[in-house]
Amino acid sequence: MLRDEFQYFLDNQDALAKLYGGRYVVIRQQKVIGSYPSIGEAFHTTSKQYEPGTFLIQLCDVGEDCYTVTINRAMF
Predict the structure, then answer these.
(1) What is the pTM of this model?
(2) Can you tell me the distance from the alpha carbon of 35 to that of 56, in angstroms, rounded to the nearest whole number?
(3) How far apart are the first and last CA of the chain?
């Protein structure tokens, strides 16, 4: 599960938003391993190196609105 990665995001959300605001960050093993302008780019690039399901892609912004994402095929 990616609970630890999401908790890392929550614990560091304000600082991460200052660094990566509005971008999609990829978190693996409680570290940011990349940031991208789109969720599709984040997924495609990261899945070349890591198995899907072993990393979290999170919109990096302040507030709770960035916690919920709707994903559809057109994004990829």
Answers:
(1) 0.86
(2) 11
(3) 23
